[in-house]
Amino acid sequence: MQTGFLLLTVIFLLSGCEMRNPPDWVVYHTDDDGIYLYDRANIEKDKKRPIVKVWDGALLSDAYRKDTIQPKTKDGSLPEEMAALAVVRNLETIDCANQKYKISIVVLYDSNGKILLSGYDEDHPEWKHILLLMFRAKDGSVLRTRYKTDASGWRDIAPDSHGDSLRKAVCTP
Fold first, then answer.
1. How many angstroms separate the CA atoms of 135 and 112, rounded?
2. 9 Cβ partners below 8 Å, 6+ apart?
3. Res 106: pLDDT
4. What's the pLDDT tens digit per position in 20-63?
5. Helices (H), the chain
6. What is the distance, to the nearest Å, from the Cα of residue 67 to the centroid of all Cα atoms in its chain?
């Protein structure tokens, strides 16, 4: 696996963002699909409520890209350029007390740092396919709730999911 190269790629990509402090990327979860990190140095904590805003990302494994992403580009369920998807970066807001989250932006990169897709619109057909890919486990179970659970856009964090691992990592006092 080209983990070292991808790790350097994501650090390079993410360190170029406008942030208050130099990024400090911490691994919060690893599995066969990839390595999941968050930027510990730039977590924004609401002073009045148990809410945090954090950049997180995933370095997708070669096996995940080959076995999951590439077949979906070949069958047309994902755009062809997504075959090169290697790094996912999200800006998330997490409600620590109620175990909910919102995604503000998603940026998808290839292994050379080229942006494949940036933004976030769960109602757009292109994003619906990508979100389905991102929020499903190998057995088809939901890793995170994909759609809005209330009018303000908050979603429940599924227990024992990647999102739950991130919540536990960033919602410490």
1. 24
2. 59, 86, 87, 109, 111, 112, 113
3. 87
4. 677 899 999 999 999 999 999 989 999 999 999 999 999 999 99
5. 3-15, 62-64, 70-74, 125-134, 162-170
6. 19
Distances (CA, A) of 38 to 35, 140, 161: 10, 25, 15
pLDDT digits (tens, 9 = 90+) for 83-133: 999 999 999 999 999 999 988 888 989 999 999 888 876 666 666 666 666
Cα distances (angstroms) measured from residue 151 to each of 41, 65, 134, 148, 154: 31, 34, 23, 7, 8
| 123's tokens | 């109602």
Amino acid, res. 127: W
> Which residues on neighbouring strands pair with residue 27, listed in sequence order?
37
Can you tell me whether residue 75 is helix, strand or coil? coil
